[in-house]
Design goal:
60s Ribosomal Protein L30, Chain: A, 283 residues, alpha+beta, 2 domains, Phosphoribosyl-aminoimidazole Synthetase, Chain A, domain 2, disordered N terminus
Length: 283
């Protein structure tokens, strides 16, 4: 695994290159933490993240909001406000726009969040960019991984990649598929926070996001439970990747049971250079 990863590191990842070219102490987590306020933003672009023939306008609005709320939830923050920028193609009807905006508003409201503004422009495709402003007294960062920590993920991974491939083949997928309807683990994170050292949501796949978490903390791992590629390479899952001391395993398992959250411990943090095989999902 290490040799493959090192070869990929030699090829510049444009996303990493762009982010590393910016100079700010607030960059590096799912959201920028300034005092007790967190700021995050994600794009949801047609022909990049979705095709309109795959999803209804309501599904597009809901997923666009969910993937943005995920950054706040992953950091143990309460979403407060959202700013939404939308590029509107000419062929969208008023009914389409109503379905889109009503879905975004309803989804935001489920998490105590209000859309307070944004911008609209005309464009060739439907693109959405959403900024979330949230609050947290005890944010969960990526940078507090400790040697000896256990690494675990929530949920059952692999469905998003499987169903995306089915859509590319022109097949139908279930309306409650994780590709359409990510599950955000707000209750689990809030209750488990006293026992967690670090965490992040799984947007680029378990392999890539584990590498990111280890890179920023300068550690490696020993695998405890082998991961199949169908799980490790499935992006846009929006489940949680967490790090915690082994002494807190029982407490976290109790929280997982209480909140009906599947939890899989798969690795232990150690001092080595081990990395999973992965590549950027962005190009």
């Amino acid at each position: 695994m290490l040799q493959f990863y090192q070869m990929n590191r030699d090829t510049i990842d444009k996303e990493h290159y762009l982010i590393s070219s910016l100079s700010s102490k607030y960059i590096g987590d799912d959201a920028a933490v300034i005092g007790d306020t967190l700021y995050s933003m994600d794009a949801f672009f047609e022909e990049v993240h979705f095709k309109r023939e795959w999803m209804s306008m309501a599904q597009i609005g809901r997923k666009a909001m969910l993937v943005n709320l995920s950054d706040a939830i992953a950091m143990n923050a309460q979403p407060q406000y959202a700013l939404v920028t939308v590029s509107l193609p000419k062929d969208l009807t008023h009914d389409d726009i109503d379905a889109l905006t009503q879905s975004m508003q309803a989804t935001a409201a489920e998490y105590g969040c209000e859309i307070i503004g944004g911008d609209t422009i005309g464009g060739d495709r439907l693109h959405l960019s959403i900024t979330i402003i949230s609050k947290s007294k005890h944010p969960l960062l990526r940078t507090e991984v400790k040697e000896g920590d256990l690494l675990a993920y929530t949920g059952v991974l692999g469905e998003s990649k499987r169903d995306l491939e089915a859509l590319f083949r022109g097949e139908r997928i279930a309306s409650n598929s994780r590709f359409y309807e990510p599950t955000l683990r707000a209750e689990f994170i809030a209750k488990a926070r006293p026992f967690l050292n670090a965490g992040m949501d799984i947007s680029d796949g378990l392999y890539c996001d584990t590498n990111k978490l280890l890179d920023i903390n300068k550690y490696g791992f020993n695998i405890l439970n082998p991961i199949d590629d169908t799980i490790g390479l499935s992006g846009e899952e929006y489940e949680m990747l967490v790090s915690f001391s082994e002494e807190h395993l029982e407490a976290i398992q109790a929280v997982a049971k209480e909140t009906q959250t599947p939890l899989m411990v798969f690795a232990k943090v150690v001092k080595n250079d081990e990395r999973f095989r992965c590549k950027s999902h962005h190009f």
